[in-house]
Amino acid sequence: MSVNRCVRLFSRLQRHINSRTSCRVTSGCNLLLQQHRASSVVCCRNVSSNGSNSKPPDTSLFVPVSLKTDNLGDGSVGAELTQPLDKSELLKMLNRFYKRKEMQKLAADQGLDARLFHQAFISFRKYVLEMTSLPADLHIILNDICCGAGHTDDIYPYFLRHAKQIFPMLDCMDDLRKISDLRVPANWYPEARAIQRKVIFHAGPTNSGKTYHAIQRYLAAKSGVYCGPLKLLAHEIFEKSNSASVPCDLVTGEERTFVDPEGRAAGHVACTIEMCNVNTPYEVAVIDEIQMIRDLSRGWAWTRALLGLCAEEIHVCGEPAAVDFIRELMYTTGEEVEVHNYQRLTPFSVLNHAVESLDNLRPGDCIVCFSKNDIYSLSRQIEARGLECAVIYGSLPPGTKLSQAKKFNDPDDPCKILVATDAIGMGLNLSIKRIIFNSLVKPNINEKGEKQMETISTSQALQIAGRAGRFSSVFKEGEVTTMHRDDLAVLKEILSHSVDPIQTAGLHPTAEQIEMFAYHLPDATLSNLVDIFVSLSQVDGMYFVCNIDDFKFLADMIQHIPLNLRSRYVFCTAPINKKQPFVCTSFLKFARQFSRDEPLTFNWVCRHIGWPLAAPKNIKDLVHLEAVHDVLDLYLWLSYRFMDMFPDTALIREIQRELDDVIQTGVRNITRLIRATDPNITDPLQTHSNSLDQTGSSKEETGSTFLTKGRGPRGPGGRMDSSLTSRLVRDGLLTPDLLKQLQREWSQSSSRSAPLSEQTNKNSKGKRKKK
Predict the structure, then answer these.
(1) How is domain 61-166 classified at the architecture level of CATH?
(2) Over 80: is that where the pLDDT of 567 sits?
(3) Compositionally biased, Polar residues: which spans (predicted)?
């Protein structure tokens, strides 16, 4: 090699070392250990001086980044300066490095725990062994170690550089912790902190007039905002305000209604809690159902409204169990809480007997279920007895719920029975005399996002039971009982307890916080960003981070679609029912069309949903129509966030109203739809009675037997049958259809085994005679 060639190679090597690494390569294990001890001392001093005890991150969430290795500028400089490396010797040397405890300790100080150290080493080893040409500085160090001129520990700076390249969060952990510090959420709202707000808590049970008094102050104010948990409640206040000659706008996730023909904002607005504007000043703000601040999914919206609304007066309505917590929360903002207590306006009592049979239903009864399948079953049985019933459950459109409620409340309508889920707990004014709990077990989502069956809480039981005998209804006193006798004692036990006091409020990462995370971790997916955020987040003892599983579900669904971060975040906050495949498919198509920068027009949506849609012929059709209604809701929700890409709001709203009418017709004929879904469906009462008759039971014993999903058959007088079959049905592990199938198989098995039994008996008799 010529002298000029050597000079050029050495100059390129010097530039390469200066530009590619800030690590100073040192030889020998002693110096590394000295640095380790010194950094440990500094670290200890920092911890003692700052008093910080931040929790270690969940490193299982750290996803290694793929390195781009095709842009090395030095080519084979290292090999030209030294010699090609022996791969087998390299492998031995790298494995020795991996086993060095001192190296693991040094790596741990840089945030590489055992999991990350292992992942980083695997990546580093693959990089060294598979790269055709390594950076010159690394090549020279490896060659020196192979030749005995260096120590294995000299690899460490290059290993650490590689680790920080594939785990970029290691270099910015302090910044990430600061971004995810949620310990003082009151400071997120400087406009609210700049004024002295007066907080009035209207505390009382259901039907105590607490919200009425808050609304009266809202109507008397020059400007105001009402924040409710449901669209139905926002609609109710919107209509009440305008009927009282107080101009009021309506703002929900899917709807904006301005009373001014020219679109100017009115002084008052009724909105769903997530849609409240924390930057607009008001004289009065009303936050309804404040106890939902502890809700695992939506609690963040109540926290945001309570801490952030810029109003001279904040009127909070909710359960007395929230008073002490709201006082404590307002103490952190320096605001006092004035409490107004209310008593229930009309009494309700728990009856001493259960209904036990649908034959004992009376006008004004409402049967509460926690399953849509139970609603289908019960409505079928009720109408089989010649009674009309209204049906209300959560996935019905608001218009259909109001239509069913109007039908049930109308004194001239023959419909006097209501079958509903706990969707009646708030948002609907119903004339109910007696609440009947069909079950006391409800599916819930726990803190880990897992679904589990739980007995309803005292708060939930009171919220539902309180719908009986509401003030201003035709019934001046309410009654509460259960369908099954042995549930009655459990219900009384639940209602005898006081409501658990609220202890924490929900929080949720904002779009701005996620954007700052993404700045530091540009290659991470949105789902991974949120996971790391929650893992690193620090919250005060008064707060918790809300469940983000739905957000992550949507983020993973559209991860492959090219969207900017803000748009992706907005799409993932869309309120959709992920249990509906058609809704999820539509969400995916909306995101894909949006990413192509192609507007989602009315004609495009009509082609997608197959409009016009026919009236439902069975329950499956009805469920599909409900899903289509949710898809139109999704379009309207997105249209207010991306107006140019979802331009045909008025046309979509028009066909949604038509669809609502079709669904209302289907729900009015729900019994016919159930019958069309399965012509063989019979009353479970009759089915179970017949099966018992076939096995030899008398009709007197089975005449009062009653069976529904989730409960077991009842014996005479409503006594609980303790058989295995009963327990399986009661726990929801066996349905009436499966029970019939098992009975048929048992009968066939018994008939086949009968001849064998007779032959066995004959043989045994013959043997005895011989003896």
Answers:
(1) Orthogonal Bundle (1.10)
(2) yes
(3) 680-707, 744-761
